[in-house]
Design a protein that fits this description.
This protein is mostly helical. 80% of the residues lie in helices and 0% in strands. The protein contains 20 helices and no strands. It has helices at 14-43, 48-66, 72-79, 83-107, 110-120, 125-137, 141-157, 161-185, 190-212, 214-221, 234-251, 254-262, 268-290, 292-299, 307-329, 333-341, 346-358, 362-378, 383-406, 411-445.
Length: 447
């Protein structure tokens, strides 16, 4: 696998890493703002509690459906190095994006949806009705996500990360504009407003990414394959990508699983209503770590020449991200965020405080996870990534029932505790395979 060089040359300083990382971080940060913004819109419309709960469930299902395409950005960043590889990756990406859209349609078959929403999640009838309408509005979401992540990977590879941020600005603008227009029209359920706004935003971003990546595509179209480089077959793409897709699929089962668990734990409606707001706040700070994976893949070097510099940056970034969430969660800023900005009722705002405090370590471990995954992707050892995610999800699947069902811990609090313990378990599992890859690569490069 070839990892691209950038205009920063061979030397990686903290300043050069920041220059490469910042536009991607801004992109993730802007995406993280979507959740709090839409929750605030819903909270200002009729029947806020029901619509917040419905939006949280619909969004969780949409995330699960889109999970196979999440890692297409990493794949195109790492593998699209000539015309042949680009064309194979593009066909693979478009096919996968189409498959996720078909999966969303299958969920919308009335009998299938009734089984999932009523029999499995045990949603109240009013909430289930809102979820169903929201999912129809989210139908374009998974396919558009797949297309834009593939082309954003090309932009990152071509050192045009600022254009990734530009696409996100367009996404947020169209999302916010759609939400505000529907809000002003009035009479539309909040869950529908949020779902329509999300679909509009990501569709605009997908189109913008395709257009902005045209120069990068032309450059790849004129790049002949290196005779010394193995031809990239669809089988090779599948072998490389399968563990990454499975990782996303397993990882994104967490939110639907927690939704199911919270529906059967103490204070179910309150937990379902505030959990999207709490996770949206934590996502603002976790986004710093999510943005780091492609940065580390692009800058670390095929032989991990810049491991030390990127590790130092990851450590500082993780600590700063968790400190930022802690500053909000452990001070009066929390009530300001939940009551004044998110428009939760005082009771719901206080209900959200404990889960938010529990999630403070998550941004740090998210950065560490991105760094570990980058090492494994560069070393083409992606299988442990899947196992780590399985450990994380398995820990949550065991931990929540003990906390929420057996010990009677409030649903949202049990979810936050299980999530933190599961993430730490996943991080610890990846330490050994990362060290093994670094040791093997170091031995191979020694004369």
């Amino acid at each position: 696998m070839h990892v691209p060089h950038t205009e920063f040359g061979l030397k990686r300083t903290q300043r050069s890493i920041i220059a490469f990382w910042f536009p991607l971080a801004a992109t993730w940060f802007m995406m993280a703002v979507e959740g709090p913004f839409l929750a605030a819109v819903i909270a200002r419309l009729a029947e806020a509690k029901f619509n917040l709960a419905a939006y949280g469930v619909a969004y969780a299902v949409a995330l699960l459906v889109e999970s196979p395409v999440i890692m297409l950005m990493s794949a195109s960043t790492a593998l699209a190095e000539d015309r042949q590889r680009f064309e194979r990756l593009r066909a693979f990406s478009f096919g996968l994006s189409a498959a996720t859209t078909v999966a969303m349609l299958l969920i919308l078959v009335p009998a299938v949806f009734a089984f999932v929403a009523i029999d499995v999640i045990a949603l109240p009838a009013d909430v289930a009705r809102l979820v169903y309408g929201g999912l129809w509005l989210l139908l374009p979401w998974p396919g558009a996500i797949g297309v834009r992540r593939f082309y954003q990977g090309l932009l990152i590879r071509d050192n045009r990360t600022k254009l990734v941020a530009t696409g996100t600005v367009l996404r947020l603008s169209s999302m916010a504009g759609t939400a505000l227009v529907l809000f002003l029209i009035g009479g539309i359920p909040g869950a529908y407003v949020a779902a329509a706004a999300l679909s509009a935003g990501v569709s605009v971003e997908a189109v913008a990414s395709v257009l902005m990546a045209r120069p990068s595509v032309r450059k790849l179209a004129g790049t002949a394959p290196d005779p010394a480089t193995e031809v990239l077959s669809y089988g090779a793409i599948a072998r490389f990508y399968y563990p990454l897709a499975l990782t996303s699929l397993i990882g994104l089962t967490v939110q639907p699983m927690l939704t199911f668990f919270m529906g059967r734990a103490p204070a179910p409606l309150e937990s379902l209503a505030i959990f999207p707001v709490v996770t949206a706040l934590s996502f603002i700070f976790r986004a710093m770590g999510l943005s780091y994976q492609e940065v580390a893949i692009a800058l670390m070097g095929k032989r991990f020449e810049h491991l030390a510099e990127l590790w130092r940056f990851a450590l500082l970034l993780g600590l700063a991200a968790s400190a930022g969430l802690g500053l909000v969660a452990l001070t009066p800023l929390a009530l300001f965020w939940f009551e004044d900005l998110s428009a939760l009722t005082p009771d719901l705002a206080r209900f959200a405080l404990v889960p938010t405090m529990i999630l403070v370590p998550i941004p740090f471990f998210s950065v560490m996870l991105s760094f570990q995954r980058a090492i494994l992707v560069i070393g083409q050892g992606t299988r442990p990534i899947t196992w780590a995610t399985m450990i994380e999800v398995g820990t949550i699947a065991v931990g929540f029932p003990i906390l929420g069902w057996r010990l009677g811990v409030v649903g949202a609090t049990a979810a936050a505790l299980a999530f933190v313990v599961g993430r730490i378990g996943g991080n610890l599992f990846l330490v050994r395979p990362c060290l093994r890859i670094l040791r093997d690569r170091r031995a191979a490069s020694t004369p």
